[in-house]
Amino acid sequence: MEKVLQDLKPQLVFKYFEEISQIPRGSGNEKGISDFLRKFGEDLGLETIQDEYLNIIIRKPATKGYENAPCVMLQGHMDMVCEKNKDTVHDFTKDPLKLRIEDGMIYASGTTLGADNGIAVAMGMAVLADNSIEHPEIEFLVTVDEEAGMTGAMNLDSSKLKSKYILNLDSEEEGYILVSCAGGATAKTTLPVEYTQVSDNKVGLSIDIKGLLGGHSGMDIIKQRANSNKLLGRLLNLLKVDYDLANIHGGSKNNAIPREAECVIVIDKNLLDETKNQISKIESLFKHEFSTSDPGLIVEVKETNVDKVFTHELKDKIIKMYNLIPNGIQTMSMDINGLVESSTNLGVVVNNDNEILFESAVRSSVSTLKDDILNRMDLLTNSLGGKFVVESDYPAWEYAKGSELEKICVETYEKLTGKKPIIMAIHAGLECGLLLDKMPNAEAISLGPDMFDVHTPNEHLNIKSTENTWNYLLEILKSIR
Fold first, then answer.
1. Which of 83, 116, 146, 262 is catalytic?
2. What is the pLDDT of residues 380-415, one digit of tens each?
3. Does the annotation mark 244 as catalytic?
């Protein structure tokens, strides 16, 4: 293994980050990384638990002078979002990430970096391995499946946990202390597929929308970047020629704003030039609307062969679902300026021989508003004769104003930097809400280094900010008595 990060500080943190970057760990494929962490804890001679869901708990006793301090949990998740550029050859089930350093940042070549949330894993490992650090008893919790549904945290046996303070290391901005986050759910609509044969004198056209920036469906939703699935639906609705629809596909994760979408249509050969001309005009419309947020947007058209198409009735249902399903910001908070209160992200659209799936991430810091969005999706689905299910429904993390842990973190930051941290709520899902439901007497905050474009192949981690956050974490641990 080429050690790209070996000269970076903090040395142990980046050593472990590079090691875990060699282990495939997409959501649902965490056995390898879970076993690696179990062995890591056992090799250190520490109490190590791997539960039936592959969550990991490792405990390290308090150092001298901290024996009577409350137990502190360092918490993160081991899975990562697996996104890659279309021209990148990479198998997330077996290939290591290819790390590189550029302008003080760490990237992975053509893929997501997994700093969300590999940096939490690396920091926790470094605390466990470094016996020179002063700290209370440490309870290192690393969960599975956070990105896809938080099922690791949902199924965690709370009787195994003893911490009073939870330091969640899954944030993405240095200098911010997160104290609240949205709840969420995965919404899935399926429509049964019905096909018919292609008539003579027809030609197939593949239409690709790409070049979008994408982003995290919670943190980046306020940037109002283009959603390739929604754009594809608009294009199909705006297209004023007689066409059949043969295939649709867009996005791969509901928690990532989709960057690419494609479909195949079938038209009369005599309409080829007119169809291409209309698509070009629609592309110009999209480019104008998203010239600031997504300047790289393009629509490509290529001729292709097709042997079967959706029925006209199904085509109409698909277009209605694309265009009417809620997407983007739904409500803004009236209490916290600039905070998205509720949103949806149509992250995945895909068809197979049996059904078409529309999958969305729904988020809200108000549970009744989340329910309202889900109810509207259910009504739309039922009106089109589809099936609607809700999965991975997790609670919001409500702000506990003035908690002792918040005071410790604020005072430590001021002492370390001479500046006040920013106390913030975010429109993203963290596991703190689920953990606090299981640990009602605990307190939690979330912190982390600067990282950018998470859930996209341009994800990058600030090296200096990681060092700053590491030093801050050590000072917090030192301050808890």
1. 146
2. 999 999 999 999 999 999 898 889 999 999 999 999
3. no
